[in-house]
Amino acid sequence: MELQTLIALLTFAFASTVSPGPNNIMLMTSGANVGFIRTIPHMLGITLGFSFMVILVGVGLMQVFAKWPLLQQILQVLCIAYLVYLALKIALSKPSRHSCAYRPMSFLAAANFQWINPKAWSMALTAVSVYNINGTWQGVLVVSLCFALVNIPSVSIWAYAGQKLQRWLSCDRRLRGFNLVMAALLLLSLLMMF
């Protein structure tokens, strides 16, 4: 991969991973509810899960969807349903003084979430089709590694920002309001993808 293409890919990867979307909204929510440290498995799940997704998309899923477009439509419906479920779960989580009712995503849940995240699909399909110019598996690996590298600071920013809100959110009413706003933003991010 040429240096100019690599720089363009890194720029695209950073801009797309740091911008608001379902992953980042849930990371901020997790950081605000349980702190940065307890959000690390969620952050690592996003980073490694998305990188793995890029590899599989690059190796063959684009061909599968081209052959059977109905599968992509079914996946979109499932994505929408699951994001609505997550938004409801965030909105309805109850603040607690002793142990937070909010449960951060586990590593595996966050990694698996990438497969139903419309923004992740859009990013993976775009990256593989635009930045793997020669269509080689080595190019797919470079795209995947670039996303893994830039995803670490991107997800950290959102979880850290959420943690910084913890003191302000120590009031149950404010935390409940924050969770409602984050749930609404999650739904809005879904609408923006379509």
Keywords for this structure?
single chain, 194 residues, mainly alpha, 8 helices, globular
- How many distinct helices? 8
End-to-end Cα distance, whole Å, is: 32 Å
Number of strands: 0
Beta-strand percentage range: under 5%
Overall pLDDT metric: 84
Number of domains: 1
The computed structural class is mainly alpha
- Dominant shape: globular
The helix/strand series, from N terminus to C terminus, equals HHHHHHHH
In the predicted model, the low-confidence regions spanning at least 5 consecutive residues are: none
**Share in helix:** over 70%
- Radius of gyration in whole Å, from Cα? 17 Å
Describe the main β-sheet briefly.
none
